[in-house]
Amino acid sequence: MTNEEYSIQVQALDSGKYKSSDLSNEFKYLKTPEKLETPQVRVVDNFLLWDIVDGARAYLVKEGDVSFETADTYFNVNRFLHFRQGMSYSIEVIALAEPNQNIDSDSCDINYGLFEKLVLDLNESILSWNEIPNTEYYRVAVEGNHVEVTDTSVDLDEYFPDLIKGNTYQVTVILGNDEGGFYSTHSGEKILYKKPLDKIKAPSVVDIEGTTLHWAEVELHLLTKSLLAIMKRLSKN
Predict the structure, then answer these.
(1) How many CB atoms lie within 10 A of CB 27?
(2) How far apart are CA 20 and CA 13, in angstroms?
(3) Which of 7, 34, 214, 232 could disulfide-pair with 207, CB 3.0 to 4.6 Å?
């Protein structure tokens, strides 16, 4: 991938009535190669991963004044020895071209944080988790919708009222920072939530005649047959 120079001339072609013109004066066109594509970096645990960039001889991974050059398409973040628990860092990954080409890629910026692992707990519709130091807020996402909270618990039925009863949903919680972004180290801790169906009210017994029991009609009485079966078994005792 080097600079290429072209010599270009223009000629007016005949239309059947006139002869074609002579060639125009010559002018030079210098074609310079385009920048390398920006690496598309993803984070898996403590590794940065990206695909091969065409034309790249190596990749530069840097944070502040500390940088590493690698021919691999992965990088262990633990090589940054100055990283500390509970802090966030901005890491750049750049695809490098051959020397003197000046077509290195733009940097892919990754917001990386070292934090304790989120542990989710679900009690009925209340989702809670452990507090993570130096986290400004938490994003809770369900079915493409999300809320951002500073507390360490949410009532899913309150924050996501449109969830359908009886359906199961995947709930994701990730850490948010004070710059409006989200830490790439946390793709999100996930938990399944099944929104419960409405519970049928217990029948209110109003009378008993011998072995016959009477109760008030219950709305949504889909379990009438089951109730009668229970009553028959009880009447034999």
Answers:
(1) 10
(2) 4
(3) 214
Location of structure tokens 């793709």:
187
Residues 170 and 140 sit within 8 Å (Cβ to Cβ):
no
- Reading the block at residue 150, the tokens are 């500073």
Amino acid (1-letter code) at residue 178: D
Gap between the Cα atoms of 153 and 225, Å rounded: 40
Question: What is the Cα–Cα distance from 56 to 35, expressed in whole angstroms?
Answer: 10
Q: Which CA distances in Å does 115 have to 1, 58, 131, 162?
A: 42, 30, 10, 32
C-alpha dist (Å) from residue 210 to 207, 230, 233:
10, 17, 15
pLDDT digits (tens, 9 = 90+) for 9-55: 888 888 777 788 788 888 887 666 688 999 999 887 788 999 999 99
Strand 4-8 versus strand 27-31 pairing type: antiparallel
Share of residues in the chain with pLDDT > 70 (%)? 79
The helix (run of H) or strand (run of E) holding residue 235 is: helix 224-235
Find the helix or strand (DSSP H, E) in which 226 lies.
Answer: helix 224-235
Nearest-angstrom CA–CA distance, 91 and 69: 13
Q: Cα–Cα distances in Å, from 131 out to 1, 54, 115?
A: 51, 43, 10
What is d(CA 58, CA 95) in angstroms, rounded to the nearest whole number?
Answer: 6
In this structure, what is the dihedral angle of CA atoms 144, 45, 129, 112, given to the nearest 10 degrees? -80
Q: Structure pTM?
A: 0.47
| Maximum distance among all Cα pairs of the chain, rounded to whole angstroms | 120
